[in-house]
Amino acid sequence: MDPRDTTLDGPHGPLLVRVYPAASPVGPGLVWAHGGGFAGGSIDMPEGDAVARAFARRGIPTVSVDYALAPIAEGSRYGDEPRDGAHFPVASEELAFALDWAREHAGEWGADPSRVAIGGASAGANLATGVVVRALRAGTALPAHVALAYPTLHAVQPEVPEGLATALASAGLQDQFSPPFVRAMYENYLGGSVDAADAVAVPGLATEGELVGFPATTIVTSEVDELRVSGETFAASLEGIGVDVRLTMQHGTRHGHLNRPEEPGFEETIDAFAERLAG
Asked: Across the strands, what pairs with 221?
């Protein structure tokens, strides 16, 4: 079934979402956020479009959210022309709005409104996690499941173990997500210092008390990826308070493997998420 675009009257103005219906729905629905360091990416990139199509083929209607991007400064690593953008909490609030909207309309796509999940890749996984942290804090409805692909959840990176550091160096990726780069990425998103960041923007800052009640979660990391330590650390925090969390590492992959559907790891990662969503 062909995807269809809908422009919502979002919390910060028009918000585009793209709905991918499933020919044979199996119950759950999913709200999905692409990655791109908060300032890049789009729903047209494979991490948005190919991923949503893959979930729909597995019977999971998916809503891909064209959330507002952070600014791009002159000479940044994003490779685009400098432009203005939106700082936190705009994208986070847009994703939360899309989740509420998806619950209201899930029945139209053959999905169970009580089984609508949220997920994302990289920075999109951060946004999805932040939506949950906000809902826990406010006591509002939670998604049925949380699906995180190679998430970034810490503005100050946890220490990289020696084995991963060696693998990153061998692949020439030791500077891809260095601590200074990650910190700068977050400060660009925040529009200020990470030292005053809220756990909705940097979920790795959430205390155990703030995470109590977190929904069942599936985290898939890339093997040769410095951000792997962020996903692993967050998974350990959830596990420590009894959350149903499954953490897997997709062997033979590097960061952003869902943005390369032709490479190994794409289908396996979607299957890992779909199994848990439909379970």
From this structure: 249
**Confidence band (pLDDT; 50, 70, 90) for 120?**
very high
**Cα 33 to Cα 210: distance, rounded to the nearest angstrom:** 23
Task: Report the Cα–Cα distance between both ends of the chain, in Å, rounded.
Answer: 24
Compute CA distances 225 → 15, 98, 168, 181, 253, whole Å. 31, 29, 7, 14, 8
Burial 226-258 (b: 16+ CB within 10 A, else e): bbbbbbbebbebbeeeebebebebbeebbbbbb
**Inter-residue contact 128 to 120 (CB < 8 Å):** yes
pLDDT digits (tens, 9 = 90+) for 169-212: 999 998 899 999 999 999 999 999 999 999 999 999 999 999 99
- Contact (CB, 8 A) for 278 and 28: yes
Structure tokens at 81: 């022309």
E strands, the chain, are 4-10, 13-20, 29-33, 62-65, 116-121, 146-149, 217-224, 245-254
Q: Residue with structure tokens 């940044």?
A: 76
Strand order in the sheet with 245-254: 4-10, 13-20, 62-65, 29-33, 116-121, 146-149, 217-224, 245-254
Output the pLDDT for position 257. 98
| Residue ranges of domains in the chain, CATH in brackets | 4-278 (3.40.50.1820)
Which pLDDT does position 244 carry in this prediction?
A: 98
Q: What is the pLDDT of residue 83?
A: 82
